[in-house]
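ASSEMBLY PREDICTION REQUEST
Request ID: AP-0331
Submitted by: J.K., bench scientist
Number of chains: two
Total residues: 512
Priority: normal
Notes: Please return the full assembly, not individual chains.
Input sequences:
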Amino acid sequence: MSTASTAMTNSMAVRSRVAVLRILLVEDNPGDVRLVKEMLAEGSKQLVFKIEQVDTLAAGIEKIRKEKFDAVLLDLGLPDSKGLGTFYSFHAVSLDLPIIVLTVLHDEDAAIEAVRGGAQDYLIKGKLEGELLTRGILYSIERKRSEGVLRNRTVEAESAQVRSETYFDFLAHDIANLLSPIMAYAELICDDSAAPSNTRVRAARIVEQARRASSFILSLRTLEDVEETPLDKFDIVDLADMFPLVERRVREEHPEKQISVSYELPADVALRVIGGVHVHSMLEGILENAANYADSEKLAVSIRVVPVEEAGDKSFWQIEITDDGPGMPDELKAFFMPSGASSERLKKGISRGVASSLLIYSALVGRFGGSGWVEDRVPGDYTKGVKVVVKLPRSV
Amino acid sequence: MVIETYREILKIYGFEVVGWSYNGEEAIKKFENLNPRPDVIIMDHRLPMKNGVETTEDILRIDPSAKVLFVSADTSSRSPALSVGAAGFLRKPFELKEFVATIRQLGENARPAAPG
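STATUS: Completed
Returned structure:
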């Protein structure tokens, strides 16, 4: 809480709703001193001003170092300092104190400059009157207080972000680390020809789950990295180069499945998009997901790329990856719709058990200026497989 | 836990573990005093006292032909590790087969043990 509000609250408590405001008046002209004192002496039923006055900048600085004030009335023309420099010298040692600059009419520019530099208000001597002065002081105190609240909130938000990043990093690193011996021991059992075969099968499941957990952590880390990296740092890649690699990888991962992949790609044009290695992982993730969820031994996937033009000279490559797997109910599809903040969708989706890799990729696509969603392969019948659509901006 | 796991696994696969350490400073001292020097050093990144990258740098300063296999769950350590001269990088958790094959390969490429 700032000095001003503490002082006001305390005073109100002891003096039955009368606030005492301590004002430091830095002014060397006896006429102006008297005038200000008279105006503030009137006060009001709820308000009493207690004024301390000094003649010089040096004395003013000395004073605020020793005593607490709610506000300062600072004349810019003092015996030991003239103009804007007076304000800056004073402000530098009293950053939390509301300052109202007093100036003469022909030096209004300096006063305005002082407000830009951090003063709460300025008043022109010769145009002073009681109510204006009182209101100026009260508003200044209030403005300074809200500034402080805002600053504290910003600091709190920043430190909360740093905290959550640190916790995330710690969690991701240590879980991956802990998975290491789990995976290693389970693999040892798998490879142990002396172990009973059902034990080895179960150990293989442990390995598989540990591997999934590890790749999930890696995806979340990727998402975090991508969100923090400027767009121009990502490579431009050609989709046509990636499909065969992705296809091969998924076949290797699922030797037990017969996967057939057909393509329909625009001819004679490079399918260039931004996103580098992440586009590769995303395509792999979509195909991997189709293979993971396929409930029969055979899976037919078709990959189609079409150009899409949108208003404002925006052109995209729309990638459609369709499978004939078990499909996805509409309520789950909704999580991939291109609306809402990605973190919100992630949160909702993960709590409903939506394939996390797909959710992460839909967040990634948003970062690259595209969008993604899921449709039924056969419109209206979600049990006949899904069509994952990803639209990425075309790069030259 | 992780060190114990590695020691057990390495033994099963026929490697001899000649030394281990829980922090970077100690690892450098141990490495300096080992005779003959190990064929492969397995290095984590987040270590007390000195991190894996710094430790790798110091070890390579002592013996530029040392083969350091970096293993870390911290993927951001990959590029600094390789740039200071680590011979390989595996992200944790890794597959046992890959781990063993990588060590074997690095070991084969290692220089013959210096005459004692």
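REVIEWER COMMENTS: The domain at 2-108 of chain B is CATH 3.40.50.2300 (Rossmann fold).
SIGN-OFF: pending second reviewer
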